[in-house]
Specification:
five-stranded antiparallel beta sheet, HalOD1, HalOD1 output domain-containing protein
Length: 109
């Protein structure tokens, strides 16, 4: 499966300094991938952007999260609408990833 990194861009990047450290927050919109039944593809594209790596050279998402379970959790409703008020967080590399049912993905590290 080939994934183009050009079709997903962060909608917001924030940097903050806490306790002398550097923290970045990246916010992505993967609602198109969610509506198409490709939650983990959208996540992989977002993480590839944050890590500045080819998705094929990254640690597979399936090693840190159950992609089938995510797909079932974020499966669209009967008429194709995204689900309301559901979110899942998990660690990936040095980041904390939170996926919201709205299609918003927040990557903090």
């Amino acid at each position: 499966m080939s994934m183009s990194r050009n079709n997903i861009d962060p909608v917001e990047i924030q940097s903050a300094s806490e306790d002398g450290g550097f923290t970045s927050t990246y916010v992505f919109d993967i609602s198109d991938q969610m509506l198409g039944g490709e939650v983990c593809t959208g996540l992989a594209l977002a993480l590839a952007d944050v890590l500045d790596r080819d998705p094929a050279r990254m640690t597979p998402l399936s090693s840190v999260v159950d992609c089938d379970a995510l797909q079932m959790l974020f499966h669209t409703r009967r008429y194709g609408d995204l689900r309301d008020d559901v979110s899942v967080s998990f660690p990936y590399d040095v980041y904390e990833v939170t996926v919201h049912s709205s299609g918003r993905v927040v990557v903090q590290g």
